[in-house]
Amino acid sequence: MKKTIYIALSAVILGLTSCEDQLDQKPVSSTTAESFYTNTNDFTQAVNGVYSKLTSYPSQVLWLGEMRSDNLNVLHDGNRDWQGINDFSPNITTTGFIASAWNDNFNGIFNANSVLQALETKGSIITDATLRSRFTAETRFLRAFYYFQLVRTFGKVPLVEKPLTAAEVESVPRSAVADIYKLIIADLEFAVQNLPASYTGVNIGRATNNAAKGLLGLVYLTRSGTTYNIEGAGLNSNEYDKALTLFNEVIASNQYQLLPNYSSVFAYDNENNKEVIFDVQFMSSSNGAGFPSHLAPVAFWTGQGISNAYGNGYGASNFNISKELKALYLTNASDVRNAFNIQLSYSQPFIKKYIDVAKRGTNGRDWSINFIVLRYADILLLKAEAILKGAKGTQTEVDALVNQVRNRAGLPSISNVTFDTLLEERRKEFLGEGTRWNDLVRSGNAVTKMNSWIKNDGILTINAVTSDFLIYPVPATEIGTKVGLYQQNPGYN
């Protein structure tokens, strides 16, 4: 699938690109779209083009999630795009990472809507009804994925369910989060019913019905989170039983398992393994990933004999592991994730779980490692979370779920796991996978925990965290497109 899924259509057709520097949303004439679809392969390419927008997902969850969380205390070294994100500055409406998150997800939605419209008008070209249904389900899964990213990042966003012209886009206001969720849930429910359980050959890596179930379960958990009195992702909807049902179905499918060795989950020669439920596919040279290089500082790469490190895309800054997190890892010397996840021998420890220097490509933006979005360990711990939050289940079940993950890491079993304990277990397990920030927000304790961490780690550069900062500002370019169409999220200048 790596050789096919991110082969994008011509920019003339859908404005797609397979590189990480995405284009702004560009509407396309119905005449051009109509003339493109002449056979099943054209639809295959179009669906692959919708997947192609996933390539920016690692940047979003690392620079807007991991960077925002208590996992990282970065070294100030100038006016960088990420600096205001890390510092909880109110002056980040022009920050590139934020604008890219808005544009990339809406590009994905536009591409999805274009394909869904073509499936409605010309889908009969696909004579295999099962394949036609699968294409629709994959596309709706991806549209839901992109909208879920937008809701967690920005709160209210425009709700667009069909391709629009530039003039039409400028008349669409931001919709209530509850309305965005209606579309997300409808799309994922359709995907659950119409996606296969697995794929073979070049199709391995496409969305499955269990990926849809896992994502929908996380959607229900997120909706159930506290509102913080902001228009963010939490609606206090108390849908933990719905989430639990979906996680149970993923587990009962027997499609997945915890790999015996933690590091093998992320091995370059073991991608799409039995623990992976959904990931972003990267391939060296034609579609290489850049995120492994960006996590380590220039000094590390030069120490590896890689000259002109920054110019070649290797590193830029010191994204240091926080003192609190380092201490949490080192509390148990037997935890196999210590040495694998963190470069402990370096003067400023950083995330290294994706770095295998021998597997680097032609430059720092050319790594062939996939980025895992959802894996079986996540499902186990999300199930434990649902039970602790009120879904039907017992403390014994919670303990057993958490201990499966702990034991794989080389840690002894524990009992009477609390919600705070669960959060810390997730923090150690998923470092560098972009889950921590959303975990904190979903927990209802993000403001308290972040401010406590800032104080305890003795950090002087990060502003006090308020509820307003739990979502990001609408990019300034969007605010300025049409005066009065959008109101800026509170707390931002």
From TrEMBL:
It comes from Arcicella lustrica. Residues 23-221 form the SusD-like N-terminal domain. It comes from the Bacteria. InterPro entries: SusD-like_N, SusD_RagB_dom, TPR-like_helical_dom_sf. Residues 321-492 form the RagB/SusD domain. The keyword Magnesium does not apply. Keywords: Cell outer membrane, Membrane, Signal. The keyword Transmembrane does not apply. It is found in: Cell outer membrane. Pfam families: SusD-like_3, SusD_RagB. The lineage of its organism: Bacteria, Pseudomonadati, Bacteroidota, Cytophagia, Cytophagales. This is RagB/SusD family nutrient uptake outer membrane protein. Belongs to the SusD family.
